[in-house]
Specification:
- The protein starts with a strand and ends with a strand.
- The radius of gyration is 24 Å and the shape is globular.
- The protein has 613 residues and is of the alpha/beta class.
- The strands form 4 sheets. A 6-stranded antiparallel beta sheet has the order 2-3-1-9-8-11.
- It is 41% helix and 16% strand.
- Helix 7 (266-283) links the parallel strand 14 and strand 15 (290-296).
Length: 613
Amino acid sequence: MCGIAGWVCLRPDGRPLRPVVEAMTSTLARRGPDAGDVWADAHAAFGHRRLAVLDLAGGAQPMVDRPEDPRVVLGYSGEVYNHHELRAQLRRAGHEFRTRSDTETVLRAYLEWGEECAEHLEGMYAFAIWDLRYDRLVLIRDRLGVKPLYWARVRDGIAFGSEPKALFAHPEIEPRVDADGLRAAYGLLFDTGPTVWTGIRELEPGSILTLDRAGFREHRYWQLTVGAHHDDRDTTVERVRALVEHAARGQLEADVPVCSLLSGGLDSTVVTALLADELRHREGPDARLRSYAVDYTDQADTFTADILRTGHDTPYAAEAGRFIGTDHDTVVLDPRSLLDPEHRRAVVACRDSPIGVGDMDTSLYLLFGEIRRHATVALSGEAADEVFGGYPWFHSPAARAADTFPWLLVTGDEAAMPLHPDVARTLRIGEYRADTYHTALAAVPHAAHESAEEHRLRELRHLSLTRWLRQLLHRKDRLSMAQGLEVRVPYCDHRLVEYAYDVPWSLHSFDGREKSLLRGAAGDTLAPRSIRERPKNHYPATHHPDYNRGLQDLARDALDGHGGRVRALVDETVIRSCLDTPAHELRWGHRLRLERVVDLGLWLDLYRPEITI
């Protein structure tokens, strides 16, 4: 896993590209703490920061096909899990390899198939190719968007990078925000393509962008489609089990220590069980996988159920670890560490955005930092809720009937940032949400055999997979890579996603509950009954009243500081009411408002953006 950056200029005018890309690449050092380098010629410069996971000695980048006379240069971030199979296929086609790395497999795959190489890759990746034969830049991103890639037009070319901060090191790109950017941030719709930053776009998942003397072209090589599903219930459960098992086992490969994130929920328990079994198969019956969960001091005494959490995770995670046979650790955080301004500042810098989930982001960042002391790769249960219909909105008649994005119904407007009345009138968030929602529905594929109800459930799954999942993957990538930790997500395997998306809703909920297929696939062997029957629980948050009081202090400072810039963007009356509420009475949605005020202040200080609305 790595960070990439680059600049392509089709009409060089003598400006040196290398020092600019060196500066861009240095901003990504935390994504790749093991090594870094830059390749440059008159038209292009590529930078790379490396987190060494496979072929520690031979996988250095940027990588060229022929050191003495390169035809193609590659800057690559991610993991391709079928690289052994592809390597054998490419050898049969006449390609010779210098390394064991999946990076070189991607490079040779491009030489063999051109842009169509993307259709052969299985994994999570974002990479750039500079093809010297045609003066052509090719940017490619994985199907689900696990790995990030941003780009912006500059004079006579493109600048790109794994994170927006890399682009800000380019002399032509400044951190500017306009009304569209604020809508993207505070609309909470997780739009595709546009970002909070003016002129900076995210390459869409499953997409390819090319630049040559004929111009820019962007197209999708993959998107969700719908086909007929002919398997009965038992066959469907067996197929799901096989697909999940293939994805998890195939993602264990690494030349560095690997562990699992084990929350005590069904999703992470299934993945951890499969990994532990595969590790014993490869290394012997005594091999033990390390697993990790997070908790907070006094959580057992202060836990209070809310709309997102019905129970305390730690006992379930410990039970799952015993059932599977892992070396299980619970990283226990002091709630006061979540208030540390340096921690929170680091988290906002990871995200390049004012929008996050406050203490849950900070705790995840600290958890990843602790895990990184022992492992370089961790596997996660992310995306199972989107693939198998685990969220409440799939099962709520109100959500099914609502003419809006379903997650906006979870807490209503309590969790939204209350905008200053003047800003709200300009942004017209309500109209933006309505327009974006109808555009999003238009992208949902139709099937002639579907009833209206079945199609509605397909719409909710499509929205969850193409939008809601986006912000979860962003969160996991930024916070893990900032600690030099690679997190893999087996439930994002595109073959699993495609199969599950075709399955009719009646099979997704055959036992009257959420995630029926995954529960059936787990059986008695992958998860204990207590976990198979446990309701959906979101990532844990601290419930300690001292945290609420400290958060109110941070929000008060943010509102009163920063030269009045925070007050110019938020509705001060609403925020003051949250500040005046007794700490022990703060509801989750109101607390999230305070979290976002704090993050907004840090973001303004870090980036000093020019905001024009």
